[in-house]
Amino acid sequence: MRLRQLVIATSEMELLADSICELFELKRTFSDPELIVFGLQNVLIPLGDTFLELVTPVTENTSAERFLKKRGGDGGYMVIVDSVDLEKERKRLEDVRMDIVWYENRKFDDIHGQSLHIHPKQVGGAILSIDNMKPASCWLWAGTEWEKDINKSMVSHLSGVNICTPNPHNLLSNWERALGRKRSIDGTSIDLSGSSINFVMNTQSQSEHVSAFQIHTAKRLDLENRAASRGYLINNNIHLGGVDFLLVE
Asked: Radius of gyration (Cα) for the chain, nearest Å?
C-alpha cells in the first residue's frame, strides 16, 4: 500500500492548476467526466507516477462545496492510497466495522480501476479512498496517456501528507483501523511503501484538516526562490491551494 494521489478542493481550479504547473514545471494530463456524479469537475497533474488532483464543485450542495464553505477557502480534501488486493481490504474494513460509502468499479481499454471511499466521520481529517488498479502500473483516474505528461525537471513525486489535529492519538487510531497499518515507533505517522501519512498537533483550533503535502525535489533552493518571487512562500513554506508544499530532498 502506498500514497498515490492527493486532492485539493478549490473554487478556482483553473487558476490554481496554472499556478502549480508553472511553479513546479508540471503538466495537466486529464479531466475525468465521470466526476460529475459528485457534482465536480477536476484536473489531474502527474508527479512521476503519483498525482495531484484539483476538484471544484459545479452543482449546489455537494460535499466539496460544503467543505469549501466550512474551511473558508481552498484546502486538502482527499487522500488516495493504492493497494495490492482490494477485496482483502474490503473484508478487513467490514471486520473492523468501517463503512464504505462509495465503490467505484471502472473498466476501460483493458484497465480495471476500483476504489473504496470510507465514511469520512469514521476516519477524520480527510476523505480516505483505498484503490486498486490492474495492471498495477496504470492509473485510470488520470486517463490512459498520463505518462507522456510527466516532467521531473523540478520535482519527482509526492511522498507524504500531513494532517493537523488537536488529538493526534485519536485520529491516528482511526487511520490505523482504516488502513490496517500500525503507527510508527515514534507515534506520529503511518508508514506506507515509500510514503507516509503524518499527524501533526493543532494547537490553534479544534480543526482536523490536511495541512501539507510532501513533495520530493533535487532543487529545493531554486523552488523556494521561484515561490518567493511569486508570493507563494509563507512562513518559509510554499503555500498554494490552502496547503503547504513541503520540499523533501
From this structure: 17
